[in-house]
Each structure stands twice: as structure tokens, then as C-alpha cells.
Amino acid sequence: MDFRYLGNSGLKISEITYGNWLTHGSQVENDAATACVRAALDCGISTFDTADVYANTKAETVLGEALKGERRESLEIFTKVYWPTGPGGKNDTGLSRKHIMESINGSLTRLQTDYVDLYQAHRYDTETPLEETMQAFADVVRQGKALYIGVSEWTADQIRAGHALAKDLGIQLISSQPQYSMLWRVIEGEVVPACEELGISQIVWSPIAQGILTGKYKPGQAPPEGSRATDDKGGADMIKRFMDDELLTRVQKLQPIADEAGLTMAQLAIAWVLQNDNVAAALVGASRPEQVESNVKAAGVKLEASAMAAIDEALGDVVVRDPAQTAANSPKTRVA
């Protein structure tokens, strides 16, 4: 496993980070989820990312149980706050001081730890003053409940404003967690340049584009049984944007490029995001331990310039690059 610094901090994280969104507590039974976490640890992954909203807090509980007994100082545990949890009451969502303070305590209990290494704003809250949010995060850090602060799916302007307030408050905002893959490159135009300037790294989710970049979804064919595209617990909704025959046809053209590099298509997709110097880690999930063992082989891979160019040529105009998509895919009002 290779490790990278997160932002301009001294914190190192594994460049393949294990994430349990859409799996632990929902798609995958607890025993299988624990086996995946054990496989991640065996492969050298030390960084684990979750969120309170995943399976309505159950994912944090599963991860906490799976990591129990490990040396805490050898792990980097990340979680997030914003989306509705619990019964979804009027204050069970957003980035108000009330919700942040209550949420961090709940997350720590479920994760069975005294602190998280990174506490992230899961989205931008348009209904809470940013000053209130950042002050609450600063207090969480000063209380020793989180070491660093991050954000997820914030625009470049939102990141700049949050970073400025964090700096004034004496805390470190060091990460951004956006969607990023060969097919979804919307952060490259504005978010990445802003983060490079501010000393913020990307921890990217969905580097395999919800499984599309594995090549298992064929144009003109029904999705494989048991795949994410057939999951009615959230997976199918997330992947449907990519379920287009022209796009799937383009993706099939990546197979010879992967073969030439000696990689599976999934490994090629993960290695591709890690070629971006502003990316500290690629988030990968799994429903089976062997998926973890395969994906981790993308760590440390350096793709030739010719391979990068061939990928661009193969995918052509199905790639989404519009920076406005970050804002377009974020909630305009607080979700209840």
C-alpha cells in the first residue's frame, strides 16, 4: 500500500481508502461486511470512510464493530454529517450547531472511538450561516472529537469561504470528497485548482462510476443479477445516469487499454483517478473480500501517458466535465 499526505497537513492516509456507503448495514450482511474490513486491513488499507446517514447510522455501527480490537493509532477513521438521521425531525439534518454537536457524539458512540481523524460536512447547508457551521466544527476539534475537518461536494467558492473561516478559527480544513472518475470529471475545472491553491486534497468517491467502469454492464443487455443496477435500496438510483448504451459501448473500448497495462478494468479506473496529484485517496467499497483484494492492486500504479490519452479517446464526449454539475447536484434547501 502507498500512502499520501492529506492536504497540507502531516496526516498520511492509504491511497486506497475503504468506504462503506451503500454496503454495510444495507446491501451486505454484517458478517460479510466485517470480512471485507478484515480483508482491507490485511491488504494494508488503514483509512476507513463512513457517514452517519449510511443505512441511517447502521453503517457506522458495523464499521465500529469490525474495527474493534485494532490499534486505534494505526487507523484513520473518517465520518460525515449533514443528511437526515434518526426519525428525520426538523433538527435531525443540516449543519446547524445543534445537529453537528449531537451528530459527532452519536458517531463516536457507534464507531466505538474517542475521536475521528476527519469530520466532514457531507454537503453544503444553504440554510445555516457558514460561520455557525465552522464555529461548531472548530469546537468539535478543540474538544478532541475530531482532528481535522473536510467537506464533500462543495463548490470551489464554498470551499474558499469555508477554508477562510477555518483558518480564522485556527483549525485545518484539509479535504474535499467529490465524485470523480474517468466518466465524471466536473471537479477538474474549478474545485481542483482552488484546492491546490489552498492546500486541500481530494478523497474521491465512485472512482469506478458505481461499477460501470468494471465493464460488466453491456450495451443492449439487462444488468447482471445481483449487481448495483438491480438494487432497489439505493444502488439502482445512483447508477441510472450511466446506464446509457452509447456510454456503455464506449466503456467496452477500455478493455484493451486495461489489458495492455496488465490491469482489470476496475483497477484501471482506480489507478486513473490516482494519477491526479490533487487526489489523496480513492474510496472503494466492497460486498466481497476478493473485491478489496483486487482493487488494492491499483495502489502505486503509474499509467503511461499513452494509456491516459487512449482512455480519453475511447470515452470521447460521454465524459461529463461541466463544473456547474457540482452545484446542480447539491441540495438547494436543507433536506428533511
UniProtKB/TrEMBL annotation:
Transmembrane segments: none annotated. GO terms for cellular component: cytosol. One of its GO terms (molecular function) is oxidoreductase activity. Gene3D superfamilies: NADP-dependent oxidoreductase domain. Residues 15-314 form the NADP-dependent oxidoreductase domain. Keywords: NADP, Oxidoreductase. The keyword Lyase does not apply. InterPro entries: AKR (IPR020471), K_chnl_volt-dep_bsu_KCNAB-rel (IPR005399), NAD(P)_OxRdtase_dom_sf (IPR036812), NADP_OxRdtase_dom (IPR023210). Residues 216-235 are annotated as: Disordered. Belongs to the shaker potassium channel beta subunit family. This is Aryl-alcohol dehydrogenase-like predicted oxidoreductase. The lineage of its organism: Bacteria, Bacillati, Actinomycetota, Actinomycetes, Micrococcales.
